[in-house]
Fold:
Amino acid sequence: MASTMLSLASSAPSASLSMHEFHKGKANLWSSGLSFNREKINPLIITKSFGRTSMVAAVNVSRFEGITMAPPDPILGVSEAFKADTNEMKLNLGVGAYRTEELHPYVLNVVKKAENLMLERGENKEYLPIEGLAAFNKVTAELLFGADNPLIEQQKVATVQGLSGTGSLRLAAALIERYSPGAQVLISSPTWGNHKNIFNDARVPWSEYRYYDPRTVGLDFEGMIADIKAAPEGSFVLLHGCAHNPTGIDPTPEQWGKIADVIQEKNHIPFFDVAYQGFASGSLDEDAASVRLFAARGLELLVAQSYSKNLGLYAERIGAMNVVCASADAAARVKSQLKRLARPMYSNPPIHGARIVANVVGDPALFNEWKAEMEMMAGRIKNVRQKLYDSLTAKDKSGKDWSFILKQIGMFSFTGLNKAQSENMTNKWHVYMTKDGRISLAGLSLAKCEYLADAIIDSFHNVS
Ligand code: KET
Structure:
């Protein structure tokens, strides 16, 4: 076992650390959760360098020896496994990332144009303020709530730039943990796998509400309403703004209205995760309708936004956290606290993606071009969805109804395949997907639909 040198002080007057620091250090060491054997600490070694005396203890235990191997991430780990596979038929339907018909990653033309503009302007790389780029924060709130939404004019929305959707959710979780201690977050069953990690790490309690009904392969609306009603008053209710991940099943406008009724009745706080605005229907406004419905009721709400999918800015980590407050004054205070939470976590956000979004959304010509590109992407996904359904229906002679695939929207299809069946998809067919039966249609081409249909039919009928 490698021996580790730990800084420690002793009672010797010449020691470089005080007794107070020694005890403090010891307490940290012992309370850190790492298993240390006090007996194994060797006598103090005194070293002298450049006239300064420092004392260190040689410890023959590694601090990291007791750390166990973490499991691969259920979503991002799929891409790692895919890369390692050398079979030429392999398909990566794990992560929700848009690919072209040739299955290549896609950089939007409007993004390239915005980047050219940035180069021409010779913009600098100074730190952003903690809350991010002002021009970005302005357009992102307008895109979400609608530019003419009175909430914006009344300055009731606290918007801060976040590290994409995930970082924005994490920031909001920190806000909940600090200012609503003990309040729980209700999350849908099932939901995007990272939601639970985010709230666990932020030490925010959560529980689940019913959402998906495997019998109807649709929304368990009654169950959802009953669980939201039964939750303690003042809970945060996490809702997917559109294109629910992983099921691809969204409430209808009428159902959204009823969900808002119960949330209002129970004094809950709606907390939207909007990672697919424009990707579900192809229309930015239509996909923001759920959020706008809640906002129009005068409710306080939280909304995390991501530009990973709709602008293809996955690795730029660009998104935002919006908190709608009852007054401009409250919004200013909430924003100040969001900044206070962000500062020790990551100090301030990156500028590149924020400038891209600000340039695209803020320029009418680029904005229109973006909408056309988004429609193209959403359209390609709809085409493969249709082709997959057609292939399954033509090939499967069992009479199984595959029409649920057409009813789902967004990047994904929730196939209903169980864990063993999903594993068969990967092990036998080299189709990489998450173990909950979700496939990303954004990673599928028309040319591969027949192959995928064969894999699904085999896994569904021949593996229990
Ligand atoms: N919310 C939802 C619902 C979501 O699906 C994702 C990403 C995010 C937030 C966060 O994305 P970000 O890139 O942090 O803005 N989902 C895909 C990628 C991932 O798991 O990180 C996915 O489900 O494949």
In short: Residues 296 and 444 are 38 Å apart (CA to CA). The radius of gyration is 26 Å. The pocket of KET is lined by residues 75, 95-96, 164-166, 192, 194, 240, 245, 273, 275, 306, 308, 314, 319 (CB under 6 Å). Residues 1-51 have pLDDT under 50 and may be disordered.
